Amino acid sequence: MMKKEMIAMILAGGQGSRLKQLTKMIAKPAVPFGGKYRIIDFSLSNCSNSGIDTVGVLTQYQPLALNAHIGIGAPWDLDRRNGGVSLLPPYQSEDGGNWYNGTADAIFQNINYIDDFEPEYVIVLSGDHIYKMNYEKMLDYHKEKGSDVTIAVIEVPDDECSRFGIMNTREDYRIFEFEEKPKKPKNNLASMGVYIFNWQVLKKLLKEDNLDKQSSNDFGKNIIPKMLQNNQKLYAFPFKGYWRDVGTIDSFWSANMDLISDNNELDIHDDKWRIYTVNPMLPPQYIGPDASINNVLLNEGCTVYGEINNCVLFQGVHVGKNTKITNSVILPNTKIGNNVVIDKAIIGSNVTIRRDSYIGNGNDIIVIEEGAEIKANSKILTKL
């Protein structure tokens, strides 16, 4: 293998149980997002745009859709002879085999893969966050600080700090304390789940952690505290920009709605930092003569005869006559009949909603799972 300065390892095996019906049959990173993408497209595109051409994707829960989507990595220019993208599920070895027990264990089980490229640095990423970030700038910062690990952080509202790992730093951003989801945080610098490690330092820690039978084999719970205990150099990399953990129904819906907001910070139309994906081979969208569309992301293959306001529609969605859809996210290939009302809902892929049905109450977010068939004249007004 050709020696690489830095390779990326994307943790993409999570079940995403808080997304409920959306992840019954697919892993969270494979969930459709933003009208045309899947969640993992953002991490993969960040790698491609940052000049990282070697990426390992660690899969586990319901990997079929994710594997099919990534394929050989062509949309992200990762179909390379030397490097490219590799799908890395757990495997049986001479010593036995286990599922990935934690984030650190997932990297530990792939030490041989990483060693093949002899990298100086490894960037560990989550495959389920929505953001645009130049990892090359973060690597420059890491080198400048002479750090053993650099952790990207973002300021979050004080009332949300208890959801995240919080980094307490000195004025130069050197980390002296890590608090995992603290009830009374000392500041609001939250970990983004983006780590750059010196590979030889990390490899030694992973091997020690694997021998510790009391360890949870987790970066936040074990590896980072161990590094602090060892008085190693840990620095926070302050990130300014849009970042969302779309791990709940509320955050997933809100992040989709952000894309059609007047104050859209993510800007998926930025030609200088494109988000790449697998494009569907579908005909152009069709807007019927009596249709009404206002503030909508509308994708290929959609046919619209009704009224749509403040919505995100994925490819292949059909909307019937006299149907009204408001403040909703409609996932791919869903068919919605005539005289249907949908108000503040997430409708899964390949759903059929028959005529004269009513979904949503305008307050709670109603979720309809993938492949469901809603009979004519149905009323779904509360969460299932």
TrEMBL record:
InterPro entries: ADP-Glc_PPase, ADP_Glu_pyroP_CS, GlgC_bac, GlmU/GlgC-like_hexapep, NTP_transferase_dom. Alpha-D-glucose 1-phosphate binds at Y100, G165, E180, K181, S191. It is an enzyme of class 2 (transferase). Pathway: Glycan biosynthesis; glycogen biosynthesis. CDD domains: ADP_Glucose_PP, LbH_G1P_AT_C. It catalyses: alpha-D-glucose 1-phosphate + ATP + H(+) = ADP-alpha-D-glucose + diphosphate. Its EC number is 2.7.7.27. Involved in the biosynthesis of ADP-glucose, a building block required for the elongation reactions to produce glycogen. Catalyzes the reaction between ATP and alpha-D-glucose 1-phosphate (G1P) to produce pyrophosphate and ADP-Glc. Homotetramer. Belongs to the bacterial/plant glucose-1-phosphate adenylyltransferase family. This is Glucose-1-phosphate adenylyltransferase.
